[in-house]
Specification:
This protein is of the alpha+beta class. It has a single domain (2-84), classed as RRM (RNA recognition motif) domain (Alpha-Beta Plaits), CATH 3.30.70.330. 21% of the residues lie in helices and 24% in strands. The chain is built from 3 helices and 4 strands; from the N terminus they run βαββαβα. It has helices at 13-24, 59-63, 94-98, and strands spanning 2-5, 31-38, 45-53, 78-81. Strands 2-3-1-4 form a 4-stranded antiparallel beta sheet. Strand 2 and strand 3 form a beta hairpin. The longest helix has 12 residues, at 13-24. The termini are far apart. Residues 84-96 have a biased composition (Polar residues). Residues 83-105 are annotated as: Disordered. Keywords: RNA-binding. GO terms for molecular function: RNA binding. InterPro entries: Nucleotide-bd_a/b_plait_sf (IPR012677), RBD_domain_sf (IPR035979), RBM39_SF (IPR006509), RRM_dom (IPR000504).
Length: 105
């Protein structure tokens, strides 16, 4: 998954799908999902999105496009890899899981 920011308000999921498909140069299945984060009150997106790619190997190619200006934009977009956080339970070590995450002396 990659994180994309500084999107113009008229950008839509289909724009991001089309852009990353063209960048990666693969079939339409290279982009699994696009989620534009929206304001709960207005329903408008906040200019940021998560793009789930079909393969982890596609991430460096997508991130290399950081700072580019896609055809649906007026200014550069920011792209970075979305790295798992320590709170991700699937990455917890057995010790932190057993101890509830607390560090004991």
């Amino acid at each position: 998954t990659i994180f994309v920011s500084q999107l113009v308000m008229r950008a839509e999921e289909r724009d991001l799908r089309r852009y990353f498909r063209s960048v990666i140069g693969r079939s339409s299945s290279c982009v699994k999902d696009v989620i534009l984060l929206r304001d709960k009150r207005t329903g408008r997106h906040k200019g940021i999105a998560y793009v789930e790619l079909a393969r982890l190997s596609h991430v460096p190619t997508a991130v290399a496009m950081n700072g580019q200006v896609p055809d649906f934009q007026r200014f550069p977009i920011l792209i970075k890899a979305n790295h798992p956080t320590p709170q991700d339970s699937s990455l917890s070590s057995p010790m932190t899981t057993m101890m509830g995450g607390a560090l004991l002396p």
